[in-house]
Amino acid sequence: MTITAEGSAGSEAERTTIDVRSEVVPAEVAGALALEDATSAVVVRRRLTTDEHGTPVEFRASYMQHDFAQGTALAEAEPVTGSWNDALASASGKALRKAQRQVSARHPTDSEAAMLGLRPTACVLVRVETTQDQAGHPLDHTVTVWPAESTRLDLGGE
Questions:
Q1: Cα–Cα distance measured from residue 87 to residue 81, given in angstroms and rounded to the nearest whole number
Q2: Is the pLDDT of residue 5 over 60?
Q3: Beta-strand runs (E) in 12-113
């Protein structure tokens, strides 16, 4: 699988399993979403995508403030129409800033290893991105994980 530097902009694939629930916010997500109450509930949208053979190729978890996501398509366990950024913009009714993205490599967490069918000693590529509205208010914090041995990062170029 190849990932462009900008990230995938397409709609959610047919081979994606989606789970959406309300949970207590993890500490690192509370900071990214600028939440003052570390015990706040957030909407977590988890997506596991498989290839045509059923092999897991991507695990993505998107965290959104409960008041923002609740009652929108973002809080439903159905694929969104169009790109994720379009869905965020539609739900917020606001224009978005370019997402802040970071890509790193590390070993998977226990849950990531289980979801992607990896050994705990395997390497994964991780993209963390926070999307804000034009006023700088965080709307979404997404962590995407790919098996490193089967993923190529295309940084573009001239």
A1: 7
A2: no
A3: 16-24, 41-50, 56-65, 100-106
Locate 35 and state its tokens: 């939440």
* CA 97 – CA 111 distance, rounded (Å): 31
Torsion of CA 147, 49, 10, 125, to 10 degrees: -20
Of the pLDDT bands very low, low, confident and very high (cuts 50, 70, 90), residue 153 is: confident
Q: How far is CA 119 from CA 13, 107, 123, in A?
A: 25, 9, 9
Q: Are 68 and 42 in contact (CB under 8 A)?
A: no
Output the six-digit token pair for 61.
């978890």
Q: pLDDT value at position 152?
A: 76
Burial class (CB in 10 A: 0-12, 13-18, 19+), 152: exposed
Residue holding tokens 């988890």? Answer: 46
